[in-house]
Every structure is written in structure tokens, then in C-alpha cells.
Amino acid sequence: MNQNELDIVCQIIFYLYSTIEDQQKQILELRNKSRPEVYLLKNFMDVFISLSGEAKLDVEEKILIYELIKTGKFTEKEAEEYIKKAMQNGQIYERKAGWYQKA
After folding, report:
1. Nearest CA-CA partner of 44 in 1, 78, 13
2. Which helix (H) or strand (E) is 93 found in, with range?
């Protein structure tokens, strides 16, 4: 292997190493951002399931928001956002206007 080829191999190795390093940083950033969101979504679902009960009754939006705020972990706006997120994730669905059921 001549010097030119050796230089190219070194450049490729450096490129791969920096790409892996960048991806590791991005993964850590995503983990740090998503942990609180995952935690809040779990709390949301815990409250939802407790209101819905074993019979899996419909849950009224007003009551759900009130109970989420009562936990001290959600503002009214955040509660409304998490209702939308849970619907987008397919965890709950709106059975009729203002009433939700677990999917």
C-alpha cells in the first residue's frame, strides 16, 4: 500500500469515527429530551386508566384535564396537548365530542 492509499484509508477511518461520534451525541440528546415526555405520557395514561376503570368507560375531557392538573405535573395547556399526543399515538380515541376511550 502506497502513501496515497494510506492517506485515503486514514481519511475514511476519521470520517467514520466522526460520524459515529456525532450519532452518539444525537442519540444522547434525544434520550434526554424524550425521557420527560415519556414520563408525562405514562402519567397521562395512568390518570386516564384510573378514570376509565376496569370497565373501560368513556372519560370526559373536562374531568381528564382536571385530574391531570390535580397531579401537579400538567398545566391545562399541557393536558390538552397530551390528549392530542395520546390520540396521535393511538393510545386513546375520541368516541364522541369531548369523550375519550382507551384504544
Report:
1. 78
2. strand 92-96
Nearest to 61 by CA among 44, 45, 80: 80
The 10 Å Cβ neighbour count of residue 79 is: 21
pLDDT of residue 29: 66
Max intra-chain CA distance, the chain: 75
Tell me the pTM.
0.65
- What span, in angstroms and rounded, lies between the C-alpha atoms of 15 and 10? 9
Q: What is the pLDDT of residues 47-99, one digit of tens each?
A: 999 999 988 999 999 999 999 999 998 999 999 999 999 999 999 999 999 99
Main-chain phi, psi angles of 53, to 5 degrees:
70, 180
